[in-house]
Amino acid sequence: MDSKEVKKWYYVLPIISILMFIVLWIFLSIPADSMIPSPKETWLRFADICVHPISQAILIVHIWSSLRRVLIAFAFAIFLGVLLGVGLGWSKTFYSIFDPVFELLRPIPPIAWIPLIILWCGIGELPKIIIVFIGSFVSIVLNTYAGIKDIDPLIINAGKVLGANKRQLLFEVALPATIPAILAGIRTALSSGWMCVVAAEMIAARQGVGFLIVQGQQSGDTALIVACMLVIGVVSMLMSTFLSKMEGVLCPWKFGKTK
Amino acid sequence: MEVRKNKIMVENLCKTYHTNSGDHEVLKDISFNVEENEFLVLLGPGRCGKTVLLNILAELEEQDSGKIIFDGGRPEMGNIGLVFQKYALFPWKTVMGNVEMSPKLKGVDKATRQANAQEYIDLVGLHGFEKHLPKQLSGGMKQRVGIARAYATEADIMLMDEPFGALDAQTRYSMEDAIINIWEKNKRTIVFVTNNVEEAIYLGDRIILLSSRPATIKKEYKVDLPRPRSYTDRAFLELRNEIVANTDLDV
Amino acid sequence: MNKTKKQGKTKYLILSILGLTVFFGIWQAAVKLGWVSERSLKAPTDIIQTFIYKLTNKSPDGATLPTHFWFSLRLALSSFAIATIIGVPLGWFMGFYKKLDMLLNPIFEIVRPIPPIAWIPIVILTLGIGFQAKMFIIFVAAFVPNVINSYLGIRMTDMTLVNVAKTYGATDWEIFTTVCIPSSLNMVFTGIRLSLNASWTTLVAAEMLASTKGLGYMIQMGRTIIRPDIIIVGMFSIGITGALLNIILNLFEKKVAPWRYRD
After folding, report:
1. CA of C161 vs chain A CAs: smallest distance (Å)
2. Is the pLDDT of residue B2 over 80?
3. ipTM score for this prediction
């Protein structure tokens, strides 16, 4: 009885929900002095930037320049972050030397690096990549470190009695056991990295979704702003979905579907 | 009666842990021998230090004092088999991957080690499950992988730390039969730790009864019952009552 | 054995001090020996001087460091408090009442992936660059983790506990208040922690893009007038405040939720 009733609502309520959202949105956009664009205006603006370039680039090109910055920064952040995280978790000596410096810099939000990085590197591609790198590096290091520390000591013992030497213990036992934690770090890093690229582009860029949104602000083009917000959200969602797929492929023993 | 040579001689083993809440004596003056190809059971109440004793035998921990003498010298790491109560399988490796781990670490080439691993997988009755991940297996099957993995080290000494302690009763009975079966087909020296009296009598050639913390040796029992044994056999029950009367209550 | 442990500790302490010394040493040397220009970086000793100077002086960015600090802290904490007071109960209700969940979740899913920073332009255009505008942006950032974690906390309630309560004849409301909410607290605290961090990070962004005061504004000004020492003083003030907020939250948690810290 109960579950049947719930099932009925299951189809109706989400539709009501979306309708509510749209009605509220329209309602906010109706007053003559309202700065909020209507859903229709937003949609038309979105369709427009898909084909008509802003600052010599159509929407997809802007998305790609943001994505490229994230991907390049990510490649470095994953490589160096895992390296540092494993070092901190695996060797007490390494930890003693580097952890205080890391702890000193860690609480500084990545966005707070933007002014200094721009001062150092100007406003080309490099500063944005560095900012995204800082934004994603920290969570990869922290998760890798926690992952190494969280390894079940039994697994390490199993490796030892099976005859693993120190190097094998690290590469054959500890590292594979840490992959789920590293993937969790990458997930956090992805949302933080995406936020950083938007922030960096909003402060200084000539291309990218963050640039588009500021462009909208400067020309009072609110439809462009809202369209961009939604685009940024959708890209973020797609990346997260892609990552879930990757988790299933890279780490079937943890995320695989089989019971 | 045949005289078998001693495989391991443990002499006056002591171990104390120093923690913030004071010193905890775990092992006190433990001495015993393990004969070649013998099925020796160490029986003791829960948390009495049996695991510590096995860890010391496996070189995972060090004793404070006392000696362990192995026939033919101390085996190197990777030349003693250890089966864990909580399986300790590598979750990212398949059954085959787990079983072939030891020879792989030692640098045996792929074809040889997989052929060997296959033999042990068949021996423990997991033929057809080679490509399964541990999480796809039941508890009993996981422990079969654990046993196969220990056997695949090709070590002649197998240490088993309450290997069936986490299994339900039914599975436990069938695993007890399985381990005897495996051992009879492929004889190794087994040191088997348990807190279960029936299991000890069902499996062991000899039982060493340990006291509660700190673990000391209370008594040694020779089990001369023919295999396969029966839980309801008269001699079985008599021995059981004798051992139970002698066992420290586990609080 | 205890002795060797102690020796180990001393060794690691020395290594830690060494690590920090080398870090600051290279930094100091890099500036003082002219490896990097003073227009890009100032030496640690100069940074300390600037810090002391900024404690009481308004130039060159318009306000003293304590003024900036107080402005930022007030903004972040008030938004954070509102987001927690609204977000946590909302998450609880969404977790317990299936229909409310189905009604609100789709909206939540649309809004959630948008980074709070992307709200800044539209908020500036509609609400200006005042205190309220920034409060709204930080609220959005702090709200989301509070709702999600409280929601998950309720959803992860052990069904056995719920069934026990049912057999004792508890009403839905009693189950909600006596079983679900207490068992969700662990997740709620995780949410609050994430929320606090998100508010502090977003604060910096909001102040950099739309403010005339605050630590975020200070570092942005530091860039405009090319004063790396001002930027770095600001960065460390932001970092240390963030760390302190976390420590205070820890102490608070130990008082309110001691089970999180018991072994």
Report:
1. 20
2. no
3. 0.89
